[in-house]
Amino acid sequence: MIRPNRVRRATRVLAVWCQDWPAVAAAAVAELSPTRPVAVLSANRVVACSAVARADGVRRGLRRREAQARCPELFLAQADPDRDARLFEPVVAAVDATVPGVEVLRPGLLVLGARGAARFFGSEEAAAERLVDAVAAVGVEAQIGIADELSTAVIAARRGAIVPQGGGAEFLAPLAVSELALEPSLAAPERAELVDLLHRLGLRRIGDFAALGPAEVASRFGADAVLAHRSARAVP
User: Is the overall model pTM greater than 0.85, yes or no?
Assistant: First the structure.
């Protein structure tokens, strides 16, 4: 069983992200070829899919029938959190053996304190390279993100980026505001509605949202918007 530690308040946070993990896990259980497109369904909608499936037009949120119409070769699997967690355990073990103190946010995404790893391996860049190699040794691809706080590190991991100390807000500013809703382990279910509202208001970049005052956000939007605004400003 995965037993997470608490590292969210580390001065620097390192995130290890394995893209499309539910689809990766489903493909592994079914022993599929890497070239076979895969989608994972919940309530008859796609909740995850492989890069090969996306290349054929499959997207999260599509209904089963539409996904199959776009990609007739699509392999469909039902969402299975137990399967995802079980297959992620070797990744957790590999990372924890390299740098102890892992916290699993969900299968496919874990975080740990970056400073200890950087001290041990000589730099954040060296630590990131070593962790990518450690995960690759168990047959999984991963990307690393490092930043001053948790949500920025997770967004950075999607780009394989190391954000300079104090540079979180600058890194986030040009990104689409929808980035604040991509990670379900860090965003409330209503975050997607907030993103839609921000789009209608013309606030399409994270920097646009971050430029609003905290008091204005608290008075105009819901409680989750306050948390999203802190993330937009790269505030822990």
Answer: yes
